[in-house]
Specification:
This protein is of the alpha+beta class. It folds into 3 domains: 54 residues, no CATH class; 41 residues; 92 residues, GIY-YIG endonuclease (3-Layer(aba) Sandwich). The protein has 8 helices and 5 strands; from the N terminus they run αααβαβαββααβα. Strands 4-3-5 form a 3-stranded antiparallel sheet. A two-stranded parallel sheet has the order 1-2. Helix 1 runs antiparallel to helix 2, helix 1 crosses helix 3 and helix 2 packs antiparallel against helix 3. The longest helix has 17 residues.
Length: 221
């Protein structure tokens, strides 16, 4: 019986039209009768297989979300629709549990034609750790800022004329009368985030031991 059911299912899958399917099943029935299979057994199993296949829903309900697979290919011009259709048909036939997408990207972008970018002025960089040195002695200060370096220098400079002690550089200039290299703040390193900059600032203070950061308590676990 398994042979009858397997051959009937094979005919159902291979035949592209109902008339062709009937013709193949008739030939299969004749062949099985020649092999002395009972007609009742042939008819029962063939009809059972066909009824089961015809009762199957064409669009089965999925209970599990399909896994999304994205394939990135180089842009192929006018052939992309044909390639996309053929790939999706092949994948959906054998892997129905996959939500297959095809993305075409051009190998040549505008940025590849203009590889050179204008250099950003160092004073316009943000999220950096900087070093400020004194003109009159060897003292220096290490700090970090999430602002642009120019804006942070402005804050230090304005603190000189204010009464609040918000800047170690301003307090140093006020107490000693020395002058700082306001136009020569060196960027020692950059960070991805403000926390990243704090960590790098701490490590640089421990390594370089700046004299104006004596009041900074460094805690390293």
């Amino acid at each position: 019986m398994n042979l009858i059911r397997a051959l009937t299912f094979r005919c159902f899958r291979i035949c592209s039209s109902p008339s062709f399917l009937r013709s193949c099943l008739n030939e299969l029935r004749k062949l099985l009768l020649q092999k002395r299979y009972p007609a009742g057994v042939i008819n029962y199993n063939s009809n059972d297989v066909l009824n089961r296949q015809q009762r199957k829903p064409k669009n089965p309900t999925t209970t599990v979300p399909k896994k999304e697979i994205i394939l990135v290919l180089p842009y192929l011009g006018v052939q992309i629709k044909i390639v996309t259709k053929q790939l999706k048909t092949c994948i959906n036939t054998f892997y129905g549990c996959i939500n297959f997408k095809v993305i075409f990207q051009s190998a040549y972008r505008i940025k590849s034609l203009f590889p050179c970018k204008d250099r950003i002025n160092l004073s316009q960089l943000s999220k950096s750790v900087y070093k400020a040195s004194c003109w009159d002695c060897q003292d220096f200060y290490i700090g970090k800022t999430k602002l642009r370096l120019h804006d942070r220098k402005t804050e230090h400079f304005k603190s000189i004329t204010s009464s609040c002690h918000a800047s170690a550089i301003a307090d140093y200039v006020t107490s000693t009368g020395h002058n700082f290299k306001w136009d020569h703040f060196d960027i020692l390193t950059k960070g991805r985030t403000d926390t990243h900059c704090k960590i790098k600032e701490t490590l640089l203070i421990r390594e370089l031991k700046p004299t104006l950061n004596d009041n900074v308590i460094v805690i390293v676990n």
